Structure formats: structure tokens, C-alpha cells
Predict the 3D structure of the following.
Amino acid sequence: MCAASKGLGRAIALALADEGVELIICARNADELAAVASEIETKTQLKPIVVVSDLSKPEDRSQLIAVARASGGVDILVHNTGGPKPTTVETTSQEDWHAGFQQLFPAVAELNEAFIPHMKEQSWGRVLCVTSLSVMEPIASLAISNAMRSAVTSMLKTLADEVAKNNVTVNCLAPGAIWTGRIESLIRTRREKTGQTEAEYMADYVKPIPAGRLGTPEEFAAAAVFLCSDQASYITGSTICVDGGKRRSTY
């Protein structure tokens, strides 16, 4: 479970543990990761393997792969990475494009390469990637995320076609407006530009959401757990939106 220390990653880790899944969790912040591991153990009596790592760094990816292989391999692989900084296309430098690629793409490709063979050998596996509603409808001022997450989604769709015959599913889960630290930070940045109060901004923010509210990490994690289950064995190559109906397209 990647980026498991907070937000959506933490919620998915807790939900999987509730279902009895033995976890390897990783994130960059050792203290936050230790707190999540302790919470999981207290609630489920399952002790996660903890790996402090920055998956944008090749050496950290290698460390995570080594630990996972030593533990017996990975049956369920959940990709999750925090989003790049908000920019427009015109204000994104070449360095920013490169940093966004390094943050979002290589880890997914390398971890797939490391763990898919084990899944194929046992004729069972689940690959799930947390992406963004931006892969369906680009979001203003998130140029890097729009571009790089779409590239990851296309790569995973290709992989899904390749491994479906091995009973390995590959899906993406796209959050809309889910109340996490990431969303809170984006809202704060945008409010600074509009000059609105929090109440004024939030009233406008939820207007396009038919559900009339933001989602919770727990609601998102429930969808993740389903896609990682036996019951979801005929769902692959899909991007499923958890967005309260915000996406306006019909596909």
C-alpha cells in the first residue's frame, strides 16, 4: 500500500486491514507511517510491515521491492501518490514537468514489473491505482496532474488487457472532491485568489456535485476494497469515479 500515511492511502490501508489483508505500507514520513501502523495493529491485531520510502527515488523503490519479495510477494498492489503542485500549462516549467513525471509514472511501472509475475504465477492478483477525476475531465490549474495521471491510466489500461487471462485485474479509482489534506490545501490556495470566505467558497465548490457535499476517505476506501476483492474479478481495465456524481460525461 503506497502513500499510506494519510488521506486516501491511510483510509484504504485501514479498510483493507479490516478485511484481514496483511499489509506492507510505505510513505515518506516515518512518524506518520508509524502512527498508521499502530492504529492498524490496535484495530485489527495485524501488524503491517513498514517501509519508509520516497517512491520517486529509484533506490527507495528498490528497497520496497526487496522487502516485499522477502515477505513472500504481493497479491494486491495499491498505487497511490500525492499530487504535483498546481500550475497552468503556461506556467509549468520543464523542471516541473520532469518532476511531475518522476513523481507519478516510474514507481507505477517499476512496481508493476516487480510484482505482476508473482500474480500471474498464482493466477490471482489485484492492481489498483488511485488517480484523479482529472483523467476524465481535466481540472483547471492542475496541468501536471492532468497530463501525468492520464499517462499512467493509459499504461494501466494496456496492462489490464495483457494480464486479464491470468485472473489479474488492473483498475483505477478516480476521486472527485474527497475531504483530505490535499483538497484542503487546494481550496486554501484557490480562496487566496478569489478572496472568498470559507463558507462562500465551499458553497460554490459543492454546487457542481449532485450529492451536495464532499466525500469521505472511508467512502472512497470502500470502493477500493471492493475492487481488490474476489467479487470484482470481472472488472478490469476500468476507471471508476468516486465523485458524488460530479463527472458530467457518460463514459
In short: The beta strands are 24-27, 49-52, 76-79, 125-130, 168-175, 239-242. The longest strand covers residues 168-175.
